[in-house]
């Protein structure tokens, strides 16, 4: 049964992982309650913003998610996040309990590497100035690769002998070793396809093994770089350097602390703030524009006013938002997550008789997931009679779900 996707936050100490996690999970009351908001200190539920199926069928006014929220077709879907703290240079050799933290990483489907681009923390997270954060991207990646490679090389002799003795194929042999990282045979097959390795596994050189581990790391842990602390004056030059090294698709600029601050002010009634947007309005702003809503907001003292103005200048106006919501969306994009909407009634999209609320449920699955796998994930082992898609047409269980295709499904149980 496919698990729910899990996104891991990695980064050196003090890069802003916990702040980013809080900024993504401290959802305001409009998002409603999810039963596992805090699972343990390292795990939390974030909200991924997606386009809801309700807008496609013009029923947004009746869209009432069981979990998360949907406002005019923009839906916040709960997604699990994991704060993988404690990664420092040397972690793969056990430094700073690094092995334990790398172990946590096994469960993640994608990573958000939170990078402190202010240059005010060194590789170990200690306060400094002028540190080059592009180094963090290099060493952190290398810790993960060396950890996986080390685990593999420890047993390479016996892995090889077994491989030859049972005439296994390389996918089987590697999958045996990589299943502990949550790999599937498909992950391993894609890794080997990409490299086009020709030699039989028993003759692989250390260089070949290294490139296999590198390619596997790319397949198993697609990574978004959250360049955090863009509110800091030294951030620009560091961002420029990293932008030259990395695929632009993998980079998102953010200021986690700004998002936390704005959400807090909104909760306390000082500003009106649309989470993840560039719009922050104070009482003064609203009253000036003749919006009576302004009356509902509290007065700001000079200090708060200045802080908000600075935040607008340094972050919102320059970058368009605090960026944290995009960090999560980008990770979901890399993973190719598809929102699937199970409904009981395929014509009304509701939960059943006498219930006019629509699209109560939404589950996130990885790209390439079949209708059968969705059914198992949602219905468990209940025997499936048939599946209906939008318009009431029968859908084959072998079909793959995609955004806009086979993503609204009604599972009919029975023999
Ligand atoms: N200037 C600035 N500081 C930040 C930002 N995000 C986090 N910090 C600060 O960086 C420090 C470390 O943050 P924390 O989230 O605890 O880092 P962690 O060790 O990676 O979990 C704290 O003092 C935060 O207030 C940001 O966006 N801008
Ligand atoms: Mg932390």
Automatic annotation (TrEMBL):
It holds the Pfam family YGR210-like_G4. The keyword Nucleotide-binding applies. The keyword Protein biosynthesis does not apply. InterPro entries: Beta-grasp_dom_sf, G_OBG, GTP-bd, P-loop_NTPase, YGR210-like_G4. Residues 5-274 form the OBG-type G domain. Keywords: Nucleotide-binding. It comes from the Eukaryota. This is OBG-type G domain-containing protein. It comes from Lepraria finkii.
């Amino acid at each position: 049964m496919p698990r729910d996707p899990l996104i891991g936050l990695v980064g050196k100490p003090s890069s802003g992982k916990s702040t980013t996690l809080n900024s993504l999970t401290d959802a305001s009351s409009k998002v409603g309650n999810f039963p596992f908001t805090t699972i343990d200190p390292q795990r939390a539920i974030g909200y991924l913003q997606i386009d809801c199926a309700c807008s496609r069928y013009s029923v947004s006014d009746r869209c009432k998610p069981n979990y998360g929220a949907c406002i005019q077709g923009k839906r916040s879907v709960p997604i699990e996040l994991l704060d993988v703290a404690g990664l420092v240079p040397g972690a793969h050799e056990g430094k700073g309990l690094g092995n334990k933290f790398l172990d946590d990483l096994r469960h993640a489907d994608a990573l958000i590497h939170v990078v402190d681009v202010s240059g005010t923390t060194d590789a170990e997270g200690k306060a400094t100035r002028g540190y080059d954060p592009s180094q963090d991207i290099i060493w952190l990646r290398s810790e993960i690769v060396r950890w996986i490679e080390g685990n593999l090389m420890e047993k390479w002799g016996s892995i090889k002998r077994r491989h030859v003795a049972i005439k296994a194929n390389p996918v089987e042999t590697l999958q045996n070793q990589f299943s502990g990282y949550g790999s599937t045979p498909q992950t391993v097959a894609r890794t080997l396809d990409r490299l086009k390795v020709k030699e039989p596994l028993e003759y692989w050189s250390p260089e070949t093994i290294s490139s296999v581990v590198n390619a596997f790391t790319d397949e198993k842990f697609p990574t978004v770089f959250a360049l955090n602390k863009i509110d800091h004056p030294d951030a620009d030059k560091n961002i420029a350097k990293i932008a030259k090294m990395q695929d632009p698709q993998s980079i998102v600029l953010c200021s986690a602390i700004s998002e936390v601050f704005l959400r807090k002010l909104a909760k306390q009634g000082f500003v009106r703030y649309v989470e993840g947007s560039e719009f922050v309005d104070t009482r003064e702003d609203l009253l000036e524009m003749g919006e009576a809503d302004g009356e509902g907001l509290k007065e700001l003292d000079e200090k708060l006013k200045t802080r908000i103005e600075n935040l607008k200048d340094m972050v919102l106006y320059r970058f368009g938002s605090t960026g944290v919501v995009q960090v999560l969306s980008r990770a979901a994009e890399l993973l190719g997550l598809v929102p699937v909407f199970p409904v009981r009634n395929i014509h009304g999209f509701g939960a059943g008789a006498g219930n006019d609320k629509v699209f109560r449920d939404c589950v996130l699955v990885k790209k390439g997931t079949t209708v059968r796998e969705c059914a198992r994930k949602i219905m468990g082992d209940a025997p499936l009679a048939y599946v209906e898609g939008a318009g009431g047409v029968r859908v084959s269980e072998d079909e793959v779900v995609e955004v806009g295709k086979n993503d609204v499904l009604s599972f009919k149980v029975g023999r």
